[in-house]
């Protein structure tokens, strides 16, 4: 009988690919820098954060036109504007990153993937970021009143115009992804679901399975449950106990174990970090060295869902 202590770690610290084996595929690290709390007017602080992330191999920089509304921001577009100022001050950083942004959320609507608005949103993102091309452009949330043919034609048009290199989706169900992919000429390269030890929906609803079947990169947002895993606020006690036990064994904190759990799935998720503290970006690197095997991961799942596995 195999000793569980001899089971290999499932944590994948390798780089991920946005693409399908072509020479122009984009390679990204297993951890990414997320900009949903990246706001304000302090360009020097913003530059320090971006440089720290890039130096740590977090070369995917994920933002969206809506970021800046909430989390202490001044309003729609602020995160892109700040990132644009950082890139204007240090243009060499642009060559070191895979720049991803999202559009399709419209204030007061709330979702608009019509051809006219999605192209307008992309153009506005390009202006705020001060760049000629976006490496990865994703539809932020599905517009239930947009036909996937129209969305596909718009995304293909953005690629043909040289405004974006690759396209993906965020917060789409597997059925919505399939409907869009049916009409797209360009390949979808990514899907961006919420996924963490505290939110296993993507594990259960087919999102991660579809990503493996179709070769999509998985960009996991809120891998620490919006910070609640670290603080324990609103978390199941059973989950915190398991994470803390594993953290003590590995000599790290529970947040680091939770990040490692996200990286352990065979779809190879990229965990997008929302911290705005350079030291926490550095600490997150320890997740790449955590050992989590099948026993550990299934313990986390059982504790998260509160239901014994059959």
Task: Outline the secondary-structure elements.
Elements: E1 16-18, E2 26-28, E3 31-34, H1 43-55, E4 60-62, H2 78-89, E5 98-103, H3 115-129, E6 134-139, H4 148-160, E7 164-170, H5 174-183, E8 188-192, H6 201-204, H7 207-214, E9 217-220, H8 228-231, H9 237-250, H10 254-263, E10 270-273, H11 278-284, H12 294-305
Parallel strand pairs: 3-4, 3-10, 4-5, 5-6, 6-7, 7-8, 8-9, 9-10
Antiparallel strand pairs: 1-2
Helix pairs in contact: 1-2, 2-3, 3-4, 4-5, 9-10, 9-12
Mind explaining what this structure looks like?
- With 310 residues, the protein is α/β, with parallel strands linked by helices.
- The protein contains 12 helices and 10 strands.
- The chain has helices at residues 43-55, 78-89, 115-129, 148-160, 174-183, 201-204, 207-214, 228-231, 237-250, 254-263, 278-284, 294-305; strands at residues 16-18, 26-28, 31-34, 60-62, 98-103, 134-139, 164-170, 188-192, 217-220, 270-273.
- The chain has an 8-stranded parallel β-barrel, surrounded by 5 helices. Strands 1-2 form a two-stranded antiparallel sheet.
- α2 (78-89) packs parallel to α3, α9 crosses α10 and α9 (237-250) runs antiparallel to α12 (294-305).
- The longest helix has 15 residues, at 115-129.
């Amino acid at each position: 009988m195999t000793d569980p202590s001899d089971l290999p770690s499932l944590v994948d610290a390798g780089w991920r690919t946005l693409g399908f084996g072509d020479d122009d595929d984009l390679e990204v690290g297993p951890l990414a820098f997320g900009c949903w709390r990246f706001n304000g007017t302090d360009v020097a602080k913003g530059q320090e954060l971006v440089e720290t992330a890039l130096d740590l191999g977090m070369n995917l920089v994920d933002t969206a036109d809506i970021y800046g509304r909430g989390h202490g921001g001044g309003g729609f577009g602020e995160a892109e504007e700040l990132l644009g100022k950082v890139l204007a001050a240090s243009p060499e950083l642009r060559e070191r990153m895979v720049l991803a942004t999202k559009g399709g959320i419209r204030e007061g609507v709330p979702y608009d993937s019509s051809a006219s608005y999605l192209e307008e949103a992309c153009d506005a993102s390009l202006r705020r970021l001060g760049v000629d091309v976006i490496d990865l452009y994703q539809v932020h949330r599905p517009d239930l009143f947009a036909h996937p043919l129209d969305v596909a034609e718009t995304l293909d048009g953005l690629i043909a115009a040289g405004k974006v290199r690759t396209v993906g989706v965020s917060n789409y169900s597997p059925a919505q992804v399939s409907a869009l992919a049916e009409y797209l000429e360009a390949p979808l390269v990514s899907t961006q679901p919420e996924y963490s030890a505290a939110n296993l929906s993507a594990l259960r609803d087919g999102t991660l399975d579809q990503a493996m079947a179709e070769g999509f990169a998985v960009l996991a947002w809120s891998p620490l449950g919006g910070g609640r895993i670290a603080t324990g606020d609103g978390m199941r006690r059973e989950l915190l106990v398991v994470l803390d036990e594993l953290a003590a064994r590995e000599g790290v904190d529970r947040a680091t174990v939770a990040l490692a759990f996200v990286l352990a799935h065979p779809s190879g998720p990229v965990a997008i970090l929302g911290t705005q503290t350079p030291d926490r970006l550095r600490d997150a690197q320890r997740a790449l060295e955590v050992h989590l095997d099948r026993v550990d991961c299934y313990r986390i799942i059982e504790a998260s869902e509160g239901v014994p596995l059959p």
